[in-house]
């Protein structure tokens, strides 16, 4: 369908994916299955049992394991030739220089945290050779037919986009260039119980034996969150597939 010239271009395309949760994990797999030759995978977290409803690599057997490692093993089984740079790391303004984004053609932002998300978007768009695609909020969405891709300034009714605009205004204005994002205008109420975290108290996920005592050895987010917004697999996956589709289409359009 794509032709050998496009397939060759995909094989020489480098993509950095930040955030490997319900959106980023599906995006990464779709990119590999479509022939992308090199990926940077960045996520600091471990698989939690609460991830099983939506994250590609989350199963009862992988709970407690490092997300980037589990996903990397799966991606290598799909394409043993894919080049992976795997980082169990937190992207932040302080660590931004460690990722060499200028070496990549595309950056996919699937980060949840507002501060880090805003920093990554601004960073990526400051590099003229990088094309950025970003995910807005996939939580509390059910209808797959409302999911769309538009330029960030045209997003309406998305709480994460609204918070990003406010963050940008408070930290030096909008980014240097426009960018396209995947989002949905759908609004649903969170019917889950109020209160802290995922309702499980301390994280119940097992830890890998022999991991060591680094700050990320037992790292997990769910017990520290004020509230968990509900998600469902088909919605987060469609967000991820749409982001991958934007990358693949852009590669094809550039060689036509």
List keywords for this structure.
seven-stranded mixed β-sheet; globular; alpha/beta; 256 residues; Rossmann fold
What's this model, at a glance?
The chain is an alpha/beta fold and 256 residues long.
Explain this structure to me?
Helix content is 30%, strand content 12%. With 256 residues, the protein is of the alpha/beta class. The chain has a seven-stranded mixed sheet with strand order 3-2-1-4-5-7-6, with helices on both faces. The longest helix is centred in the C-terminal third of the chain and has 23 residues, at 233-255. Residues 208-218 have low confidence and may be disordered.
Any chance you could write out the topology, listing elements then pairs?
Blueprint: H1 4-11, E1 14-18, H2 24-33, E2 38-42, H3 67-78, E3 83-87, E4 106-109, H4 114-125, E5 131-135, E6 148-151, H5 159-170, E7 180-183, H6 233-255
Parallel strand pairs: 1-2, 1-4, 2-3, 4-5, 5-7
Antiparallel strand pairs: 6-7
Instruction: Please state how the strands of the largest beta sheet are arranged side by side.
Output: 3-2-1-4-5-7-6
Strand content: 5-15%
CATH homologous superfamily?
NAD(P)-binding Rossmann-like Domain
Helix content: 25-40%
Fold-level CATH name? Rossmann fold
Counting H and I runs of at least 4 residues, what is the number of helices? Answer: 6
